[in-house]
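Data deposition worksheet. Section B asks for the primary sequence of the deposited chain exactly as it was used as input, without tags or linkers unless they were present during the calculation. Section C holds the resulting structure in C-alpha cell form. Section D is free text for depositor observations; keep each observation to a single sentence. Incomplete worksheets are returned to the depositor.
Section A, Depositor: J.P.
Section B:
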Amino acid sequence: MLLREAINNYHDLLTDELAQESWAQLEDQMRRRGLFFGTRPLSTVLRPRFLTIEQYRFLQLRVQGILGAFEKAYRAALENEHIRAQFGLNDWEEEFIQYDPGFRAPSPTGRMDTFFVTEHGGLKLVEYNAETPAASGYNDALTEVFWGLPITREFLRRQELRPLPARHSVMHVLIDAYQQWCGRRELPTIGILDWKEVPTYSEFVLFNEYFKSQGLTSVIGDPREVEYRDGKLYVGDTHITMIYKRVLLHELMQRGGRDHPIFQAVREHAVCMVNPLRCKILHKKASLAVLSDERNEQLFSAAERKLINDHIPWTRSVENRHTTYHDQPADLIPLILEHRERFVLKANDDYGGKGIVLGWHTEAEEWAKAVQTALTEPFVVQERVAIPNESYPALVDGKVQFFDRIMDTAPFIWHGNYVDGCLTRLSTEALVNVTAGGGSTVPTFLVEKR
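Section C:
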C-alpha cells in the first residue's frame, strides 16, 4: 500500500506544465552528462523506480542467500571436471580458468537480473551477469539527474527518497582486488578497457572522471591500442597495473587471440584484472542450470536448496537426457517441444537479448528449429516466469501520458557475496534489455512517507 500510495502521489503531482519543465531539464542533463546508449537517451520516462525499505531488504537477503550457492558451485567446478562440464566452457575458457587471478572472488563486480513482482514478494533470478556488469555509473548519474528535477522538488514535500548509489562500490572492489593481488596497501593505476565504438563508452567517461575525483590514476583504452612490453602493460604512455575490464572475453579472443597483450599480461601476473578470467564460470547461463538441476542437490544446504527452488526458475542445459520437472520424471527434449509456451531458450554465453527465443511468442515449427539449434550449440532452457509491469509517465506532444512498462530488477553484487544498489530497466517489449530496443533505464529510490 505504501508503494502504491507513493506512485499515485507522484503521478497526481505531474501536471502537463510540471512534466514539460521536468522533461526539458531531464533532456538537458542527459545531453550534458552523456547519458546515452549509443544515440538513444537512457531514460524516456518521467518517474524513477520506487521500492519500499522492506522490499529492498527482502531483495538483498534473498539474493545474498543464493550467492552462497553460486560460490559453492564455482568452487566445485574448479575442483571437479564433471561438475565443470555442466557449465559449458569451451577449450580456451578451460585453459584460462587455470590461471589464479590473485584474489578470492570469482566476480568482484556482478549484477543479478531478476523479475521482482513486488506486490506479492515474488522474486525470480533469471541471469547472473558475472563478467562485465554495466550501468552502475549510469545509475548514479541518473540518480543525480532525477534528484534535481522540478517534479522531485514537489514530491519531496510528501515523501522521503533515499538513493542507492553504486559507483563507489566499483572503486572499492577494484582497490580491494588489487591489494589482494599485489599483497600491498597501494593504489592501482586503472585502465578502463573496451572497444572505443561500443555504445556504453560514455559510461567509461563517467567512471574515469569519478576515479580521478577520488585521487586515483585512470585512463580509458581500446584493447587494440594496448601494448605489453618489458613485463608491463601500457595504454599509450601510461603503465597500468589494474584493468577494469569492460571488454567481453570472447570478443577479445575473437579479435586478438590467445596472445593478445591483455591475456599475456594477466597470465604472467603483470596486471590485475577485474573481473578475472575465471568469471566465465558463473557468467554462463548454465550456472543457473547447475544450481537448479537435481543432479547437484548434494552441493547445497537445505536452506540453499529452498532458496534455489523459491527464486531460480527451473533451468536445464539443452541436451538429450532425462531429468525432473516439478518433481516428476521427464524426457527433456520432448517436454520442451510439447510445451513451448512454458519455456524460453537462451544461448549459454551471449548478451543484449541475443540468442533468446521466447516459446510463447514462437510458432511450433520455428520453436522446433530453435530446439534443434540448441542441441548443437551451448544453450539452456528456462521456465517462463511472471513478468511485472508498472505504469510510468512520459511526455507525448506536450501532454502527460501513462504507459504500462515491463520492468526488471537488477541488484548490483559486490565481492560475490552482498547486494548494494539496484538497476531498473523498463521496456515495452518482452525482452527487457536496453540493447534489444524500446528500453529505458531509471534510477531506483527507496521511498518512505514523511
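Section D:
The mean pLDDT is 95.
The two ends are 15 Å apart (CA to CA).
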